[in-house]
Amino acid sequence: MKCRVCRGPAVIDIRRHNANFCSEHFLKLCRDQTAKAIKDFDMIAAGERVLVAVSGGKDSLACWDILLDLGYQAEGFVIGLGIGDYSASSTDYARRYAASRGVLLHEVSLPEVYGYDIPTGSKVAKRVPCSVCGMSKRHLFDKAALDGGFDVVATGHNLDDEAAVLFGNTLRWQTDYLGRQLPVLPARHGFPRKVKPLVRLGEREMAAYCVLKNIDYIVEECPMAAGNKHLGYKEALNAIEVTSPGSKHDFYFGFLARASAMFRPEAEEEQASLNACTRCGAPTSNPEVCAFCALVDRAGGQIPVTISPRVRTSA
Length: 315
Ligand code: Q46
Ligand code: ZN
Ligand code: ZN
What we know:
The chain has 13 helices and eleven strands. It has 315 residues and is α/β, with parallel strands linked by helices.
């Protein structure tokens, strides 16, 4: 197996590119693919400050690492979700990475600051843990980015994630979600810009990237992920990819090029009808209090006026 670029011994084959790569050229490919996504979708301009949503997993750490190597000013933000040992351990991976690169990591603990953890929030809201978790994370990342004066929030969603979400949304024709499933969401109505720089790279490539760059990441899955529908969608797409390499890429990028615009008016209409939460000011489709503030109320916590003093920063 030889590297497509230098003909030296290859360490990875990427079937959708029909090519093998040595370590050096694979790492370059990851940077190049990320730079191409950033350029094609106008994700980040030179000199902008980026807040990377970090979980301690391979994708978010690889995303942070690649952005730093590409020369972006990228700081990390990790949320303590209170999911037992899993959360403590994932935060530690994020801290170790930040220390190894000498970069800033901002932290906020959901139980310490807002008085609930994901298992409790899920019970109180009578919603599956991932739904409460996703809503809480989105709220806190948006807030941290706006409070900290960042231009953009970057997440580590990769091609496998996006193809699986698209598959789920298409299976049920969730047209409102389809209109919002973009690699970049512009800043508006109180939301910061959100970007997914890894959309051109797959899950397996991100694991290989971390191994080759000696980035230690949390390998164990979140214990609350069991039963998550996206895992099933990923398996289904993986089975298709085996016999038809490139299917995930064509499915996702074909959607962006040829179908996504059809669903945008519905999503934009929904965005335009958002109100400001009477408690925290965040945009919400609820008439008064946003879903996050409502959950904090019901879970028994208090919303601090600002979380900034409680955000710890390590470098
Ligand atoms: S952390 Fe949260 Fe994930 Fe765990 S509870 Fe679900 S959403 S699976 S990325
Ligand atoms: Zn090579
Ligand atoms: Zn609110």
